[in-house]
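Narrative progress, year one. The postdoctoral researcher (J.K.) led the effort to move from monomer predictions toward full complexes, under supervision of the PI. The following entry was the first complex the group processed end to end, covering 293 residues in total.
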Amino acid sequence: MSHVQAILIDDSRAMRLILRRIVGQIGFDAVEAEDGQAAIDLLNSMEKPPELALIDWNMPNMNGLEFVTAVRKEPKYREMTLVMVTTESEQSQIVRALAAGAHEYVIKPFTAGAMIEKLALLGLVPQGASS
Amino acid sequence: MSDVAALRVEDLHEIVEQVWSSYLDPDGIEPLLPIFSEEDVAALKTDMHASVSITGTWHGHVVVACNEPAAKNCSAAFLAMEADEVGEEDMMDVLGELANIVGGNVKSMLPPGCFVSLPTVVTGEAPHYPSAEPVCQLAGLWKEDPFVITMWQSSGAAGEAA
């Protein structure tokens, strides 16, 4: 089985599909979770953590900020890049997410090009991958 | 009183244009065509309603309404499938996400300290907000089917809070 490089965490299946298409353009295999708790359960079942997590903020059970806070406490996920993908655009909330350990922030709505640019800035777009 | 009166239909239109160009009309071929005549807006028939509530320093609701063909086309665009393959669950999910995105962007124009609920989607009659009144509305046609986005402000102390 190929190594999963991304986990897509959003309570909307449509949004997970959009994100899957985008990370697919840079050659990433992805798994999906519909909230933060489901994502943690999924991560715990994986042999090797993915390089990238794209995380919605507003989700039932465990929201994106709670997920980031929980994951950042676990040394085994230290290398995982955490990107919030959300409509939450209030400055104080962005600061909270970054302080909790998120690396980047993408505000919905976004285009595929904008997301790939952001991932490229994080060094996650392999040479020669579509952009 | 909060400065929500400053939110204009042009602001809603800008949000909608961003959503359309990101997900529904990336090639810019089929934008939402706004309708300005009150009579024409009143004649639009919608039976699918997705909404989010906003609480905090401002209280109200953002509702995205359309009919089933519009919801199908919208879901097909989001999910990259044919409209006739779209199921009820797909439409609920996509309309909920649309309300979430539009509502989240509306929130960004409100005073700081607001929170957006998870989306709710209902079919049939429009949701009724007895203690709220519409303060801003954008109506239009997309692929000849109606979309109506309405912002409701709750009255009373919560709605007046700044």
